[in-house]
Amino acid sequence: MSRWRRQRAHSLVEALVALALAAVVLAAAVALYRTQRDAYVASVDAARARDAAAVALTLVAQSVRMAGFVPLDMRMAGFAPLFGCASARAAGDAMRPACVAATDGSDGLLVRYVGDVRSTWPTADGRVTDCLGQGVGAAGDRPLVVNRYFVRQGRSAGVPELYCEGSGRPGVAQPLVEGIERLRLRYRLRGRPAWRDASALAADAWREVVAIEVCVQVRGTAPAPAGRYIDCDGISQTSRDGRRRWIARRWLSLRNTVAPVGATGANQ
């Protein structure tokens, strides 16, 4: 008796089940890839923001630590080491600045100190430098250096940036750090325990500033779902433009302020 071998084919149901399983596996692989990609992008964005905040705080701190410096062998009329503006930037004359309102709500800071070749990096021709590395005065001079820090929208990249205007080229500011969306400043006066905004300080109170709190808010570049963050004022905010935000702060003492004889309670 001869045997007939039957050729068997997959049924339509079996084919559909196989296709469904393949689709599930493919969807899982795509979802895993997207999750890993989003996690990587978020990690890179956070690292970039932390770096930007660290650089911004370091640059401002370098100037603040020099605030009020005068060489021991030099006589100069007393001047306030700092001047600040709340939700505005310092503009105008270096010794009599005014506050110009800022649309982004960022604060502005003006720092004054006497520069020499030891306190700043000198230029190739021996001049002292400002916050942008620009020469101030003539070679061998010890001029008053004035640095002004503020935040505004970048004109080239279109993103917020930390700017500085130095006395090497008055009126010409240059960006320092990209992504800095807000600069928030508070001050502590000699013998006073509370931190105060610039708007709460009288004109003659700037000579009594012994410490400053610097807070920066950084805006991310990677798209992200709407989320909440805590701003520099400690208020919970909602991000509605698809960007993450981070804040970082630093507390700095003014090293070149001298307490009057008999003064107590200064926290330096």
TrEMBL record:
InterPro entries: N_methyl_site, PilW
A Pfam short name: PilW
Any Gene Ontology biological process: type IV pilus assembly
Protein name (record): Type IV pillus assembly protein
Native source organism of the sequence: Burkholderia glumae (Pseudomonas glumae)
